[in-house]
Amino acid sequence: MRAVVTGSGSALPVNCVTNADLADRVDTSDEWIVERTGIRQRHIAGENETTSTLATEAARRALEDAGVDASEIGLIILATATPDFTFPATATQVQHALGCGGGVAFDVQAVCSGFLYALGTADSLLRTGMAKKALVIGAETFSRILDWEDRTTCVLFGDGAGAVVLEARDVADNGPGILATKLHADGAHRELLYVDGGPSTTGQVGKLRMKGREVFRHAVVNLADVLKEVLVQANVEVDMIDWVVPHQANARILDATARKLNLDPSKVIVTVDQHANTSAASVPLALDVARRDGRIKAGDLVMFEAMGGGFTWGAALARM
Ligand code: ACO
């Protein structure tokens, strides 16, 4: 039994904000942002767009792509660090909006690695028979937790959502499905990337704070290590990989990780230029873009990877 990706979908807020637009707000420039990050624009949620509305739209598109009716979904796992409310879980709001009540629905919080955590959890639950069909969603409205006066962070993030339908199937050894996943967490580095508020401390939502240079250093090391672990677990050589769908934090992290692994950079799906860092949404958003433009096809071997606040990090290998 394997968990097979049978559909994907994504959603972006209507409003697109360019680097030049940001340069009107804070002391920055298109040149600095492009050179240091590769980001050219990001989508920012308007008043009526929330994490759950974006997630619902992405989920509907994934269901349509998979040819699955919402009533068939027995499990929804939604990865987010920016839920609509402290509770109930945003996954339950999405479940209600889709009209697929009765199954299991919950959120996972692993910041930028959230989608990898959700995917790994859904894979385990499907393989143990808890459900037959699942929606795994990454959705964020990071614009709501940014300090719009802090140029070192506000230029880096965007809003959006991505979703996949996963189905439990009996497949041949060389057939499709998730082949290996590896997840890690290390709470020792909270001060490098965190939000300075929360229900149990300040009672306020808080704003994102980051020591970018140090996060960068940890990201490259941790990502290269976890990718190697997954390759060993799946008994796969790096040159057998058709595509890497990485968390889209920074073009330079993507380049440095590819170099460390001797990975052909043309196999790396890059959307950070268009979406910026959408945290838990970035991997399923990038996957959906590359499936819809025809790059990622059935039978391809695809590596997913992400690293985020906590620190948390992880990778997964799947055959499409
Ligand atoms: N515009 C213009 N200048 C800026 C800006 C800006 N938006 N932001 C910072 N600067 C200035 C700084 O003030 C500093 O000026 P100084 O030398 O006069 O003090 C100078 O640029 C260099 O700043 P650094 O922080 O050293 O720049 P660096 O090359 O490290 O790039 C960046 C910063 C882009 C944040 C980089 O460290 C990075 O991408 N880190 C990874 C962080 C990340 O992606 N986190 C996301 C969550 S975790 C994850 O997803 C992996």
Automatic annotation (TrEMBL):
<dbReference type="InterPro" id="IPR013751">
    <property type="entry name" value="ACP_syn_III_N"/>
</dbReference>
<keyword id="KW-0963">Cytoplasm</keyword>
<dbReference type="InterPro" id="IPR004655">
    <property type="entry name" value="FabH"/>
</dbReference>
<comment type="similarity">
    <text>Belongs to the thiolase-like superfamily. FabH family.</text>
</comment>
<feature type="active site">
    <location>
        <position position="277"/>
    </location>
</feature>
<feature type="active site">
    <location>
        <position position="112"/>
    </location>
</feature>
<keyword id="KW-0275">Fatty acid biosynthesis</keyword>
<keyword id="KW-0276">Fatty acid metabolism</keyword>
<keyword id="KW-0808">Transferase</keyword>
<dbReference type="InterPro" id="IPR016039">
    <property type="entry name" value="Thiolase-like"/>
</dbReference>
<dbReference type="InterPro" id="IPR013747">
    <property type="entry name" value="ACP_syn_III_C"/>
</dbReference>
<comment type="function">
    <text>Catalyzes the condensation reaction of fatty acid synthesis by the addition to an acyl acceptor of two carbons from malonyl-ACP. Catalyzes the first condensation reaction which initiates fatty acid synthesis and may therefore play a role in governing the total rate of fatty acid production. Possesses both acetoacetyl-ACP synthase and acetyl transacylase activities. Its substrate specificity determines the biosynthesis of branched-chain and/or straight-chain of fatty acids.</text>
</comment>
<dbReference type="Pfam" id="PF08541">
    <property type="entry name" value="ACP_syn_III_C"/>
</dbReference>
<protein>
    <recommendedName>
        <fullName>Beta-ketoacyl-[acyl-carrier-protein] synthase III</fullName>
        <ecNumber>2.3.1.180</ecNumber>
    </recommendedName>
</protein>
<dbReference type="Pfam" id="PF08545">
    <property type="entry name" value="ACP_syn_III"/>
</dbReference>
<comment type="subunit">
    <text>Homodimer.</text>
</comment>
<feature type="domain" description="Beta-ketoacyl-[acyl-carrier-protein] synthase III C-terminal">
    <location>
        <begin position="232"/>
        <end position="319"/>
    </location>
</feature>
<keyword id="KW-0012">Acyltransferase</keyword>
<keyword id="KW-0511">Multifunctional enzyme</keyword>
<feature type="region of interest" description="ACP-binding">
    <location>
        <begin position="248"/>
        <end position="252"/>
    </location>
</feature>
<keyword id="KW-0444">Lipid biosynthesis</keyword>
<feature type="domain" description="Beta-ketoacyl-[acyl-carrier-protein] synthase III N-terminal">
    <location>
        <begin position="106"/>
        <end position="187"/>
    </location>
</feature>
<keyword id="KW-0443">Lipid metabolism</keyword>
<feature type="active site">
    <location>
        <position position="247"/>
    </location>
</feature>
<comment type="pathway">
    <text>Lipid metabolism; fatty acid biosynthesis.</text>
</comment>
